[in-house]
Amino acid sequence: MTDIPDLTIRQIERWCAARVPARLHDEIRVECRRRGRSVTIVERRAPWSPDLGPEWTEQKIAQLRLDDNGRWSVYWADRNDRWRTYPDAPRADHPAPLLAEIDRNPNGVFWG
Fold this sequence. Notes:
- This protein has 112 residues and is α+β, with helices and mostly antiparallel strands.
- It has helices spanning 6-18, 96-104, and strands at 28-35, 38-45, 57-66, 72-77, 83-85.
- The protein is globular and about 50 Å long.
């Protein structure tokens, strides 16, 4: 069983931070969370209405999963927040090609 190296998590965190200009971080952020051998990427938005309370809202963007062979795959969240296999995404030895695919978003499933 292969654990996710801390260096890989830091690379994903840097990718997330680069998605939004620093001047907008008080309004919107892209962050990641590690759980076991998966990394979930979320978009967080500051409260925009007093009626909704002081909590930031969160939207799932993608999930990267590391398998027993050290290969990465990417998933997207459907409207019910269930993870679905991303079509046509290759498995990769490192998350970088999958992060590039999330950036490209040709099917519109990651960033709407």
